[in-house]
Design the sequence.
């Protein structure tokens, strides 16, 4: 296959500092109702909409899966000269058009490299192996996962996501079960402040109902439920009523604006909390994308307690299918200086084709109040059968 020459890497980096000078796409984004697409990260389950779109790809929800690891549509197809095609080289068990879709997430390491001072809370993922399955028939879609917990978490098998969705019309769908409530932007490192500090992190699904309304350029997701799934199953008093709302507007084919809100009621000794966020995604070129998210959360305490989060993630496709990303993040509160955390995340995402990809993230956390520094390494392997 012959592809056209690509600009040098230095020229691409120059575009990073001049993104606002690039022209916005004039055509509306197409809401591709692809589910468990074989080249999207696991965020599919979090931001999936049966009525179309909602996948937080590096380009919003405007491009098809063939474009995520190329510099555009040119060269995205399979090489007809290849014996079995590039897609069939790895795990081509289930066809793209099959009603059944299967996937495997394997997290071989989430290791703290170095911690000075007293230890922080454990950030190890609850599962080391996660099997995914989705079945679509007519207007119905069923999705579920099952995984093995590490021994430190008690071992055994557990399902963190399982739900059923129904597409009532071409633009309206409803799903019920256990899922991650849509809120803001879920960066590729899976532990960004944008969700972690809102108790909407990697293992914090809720039991509830979600309604999605989608058009070519907008997506509205509203969910409500009796609280965190783990709290309900454990019969604790922390399962507060939770409701979220997320509205995504595609300003252009490569420009996306997202507004989010969350309210979690009081439960036990935990006060009620209300939060809101605004996210902006921009991809001036097929090999460059950036997301910026700002968030504020309010807790009903005796004294005013507000926490603020500002985060950015910029990704550059240095080589075909090889994305390099950097994500500065900061969190602080208005009443407690001990709550300030400054984080830098450096990552590498490898999307060779459509049946597997690898994510590696390296964190450097700094707590200015006591000077403590912490480093963490996360590696994940995703296989789509």
Sequence:
């Amino acid at each position: 296959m012959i592809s056209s020459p690509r600009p040098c890497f230095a020229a691409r980096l120059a575009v990073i500092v001049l993104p606002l000078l690039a022209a916005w796409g004039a055509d509306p984004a197409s809401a591709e109702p692809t589910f468990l697409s074989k080249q999207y990260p696991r965020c599919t389950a979090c931001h999936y909409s049966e009525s179309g779109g909602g996948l937080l790809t590096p380009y919003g929800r405007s491009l098809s899966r063939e474009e995520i690891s190329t510099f555009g549509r040119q060269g995205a197809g399979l090489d007809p000269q290849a014996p079995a095609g590039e897609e069939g080289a790895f795990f081509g068990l289930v066809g793209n058009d099959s009603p059944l879709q299967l996937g495997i997430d394997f997290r071989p390491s989430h290791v703290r490299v170095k911690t000075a001072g007293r230890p922080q809370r454990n950030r190890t993922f609850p599962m080391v192996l996660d099997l995914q399955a989705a079945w679509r028939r007519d207007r119905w879609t069923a999705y579920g996962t099952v995984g093995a917990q590490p021994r430190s978490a008690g071992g055994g098998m557990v399902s963190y996501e399982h739900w059923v969705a129904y597409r009532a019309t071409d633009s309206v769908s409803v799903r019920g079960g256990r899922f991650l409530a849509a809120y803001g932007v879920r960066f590729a490192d899976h532990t960004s402040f944008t969700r972690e500090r809102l108790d909407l992190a990697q293992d914090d699904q809720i039991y509830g109902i979600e309604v999605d309304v989608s058009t070519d350029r907008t997506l509205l997701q509203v969910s409500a439920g009796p609280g965190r799934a783990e709290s309900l199953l454990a019969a604790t008093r922390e399962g507060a009523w939770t409701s979220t709302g997320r509205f995504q507007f595609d300003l252009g084919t490569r420009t996306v604006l997202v507004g989010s809100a969350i309210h979690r009621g009081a439960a036990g000794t935990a006060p009620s909390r209300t939060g809101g966020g605004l996210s902006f995604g921009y991809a001036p070129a097929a090999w460059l994308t950036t997301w910026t998210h700002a968030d504020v959360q309010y807790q009903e305490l005796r004294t005013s307690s507000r926490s603020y989060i500002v985060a950015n993630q910029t990704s550059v496709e240095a080589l075909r299918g090889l994305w390099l990303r950097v994500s500065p993040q900061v969190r602080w509160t208005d009443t407690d200086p001990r709550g300030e955390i400054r984080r830098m995340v450096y990552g590498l995402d490898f999307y060779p084709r459509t049946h597997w990809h690898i994510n590696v993230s390296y964190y450097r956390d700094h707590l200015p109040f006591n000077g403590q520094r912490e480093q963490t390494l996360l590696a994940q392997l995703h296989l789509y059968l």
About this structure: The CA atoms of residues 9 and 318 lie 7 Å apart.
